Amino acid sequence: MSVRLDHGDDALSEVHEINVTPFIDVILVLLIIFMIAAPLATVDISVDLPAANAERSSRPDKPLFLTLKSDLSLTLDNDAVNRAALAPSLDKAASGDKEQRLFLRADKAVPYGDLMTLMNELRSAGYLHVALVGLEADKP
Q1: pLDDT digits 0-9 by tens, 61-77
Q2: According to the model, what pLDDT value does residue 46 have?
């Protein structure tokens, strides 16, 4: 048994409402993509940097970071580097430009002697422009 609800009018009327269901589907898919991609875009090198109250200096477009972790292992940007291959890795990353500023991050648990040894290795490799990276401290 069927019932006719249009009361005999055979002409189709126009619907003046926007169908937002496809729009919501696209937004939800984009949200999921950004939720997955955002953590992958961050750098996760755990270094406990000491605080400094020096004035903040300008940062270049593509900085070159060398990180000395608390276990005395080295990473150049995001790649682990062996100490024996430090100079060739720096040359490759800096495209042979020894005048490029090198940003050195060291964990505050690293002994001062080990930090100086690394800086001497950088000097021996020809990299004399080294900037030490620290956290910003509150000014007194």
Answers
A1: 788 899 999 899 999 98
A2: 72
Q: What angle do CA 115, 121, 127 make, to 5 degrees?
A: 105
Using CA atoms, how far apart are residues 110 and 115, in angstroms rounded to an integer? 7
CA distance 139 to 91: 37
Q: Is the dihedral of CA 30, 36, 39, 42 positive or negative?
A: negative
What ranges in the chain are assigned the alpha helix state H?
21-40, 86-93, 112-125
Whole-angstrom distance, CA of residue 67 vs CA of residue 133? 10
Residues 82, 88, 94, 98: is their CA dihedral positive or negative? Answer: positive
Q: How far apart are CA 16 and CA 29, in angstroms?
A: 27
pTM equals 0.59
Reference 107, options 52, 56, 46; nearest CA is 46
115 CB burial (10 A radius; 0-12, 13-18, 19+): middle
Report the sign of the C-alpha dihedral through residues 100, 72, 89, 120, in that order: positive
Inter-residue contact 37 to 122 (CB < 8 Å)? no
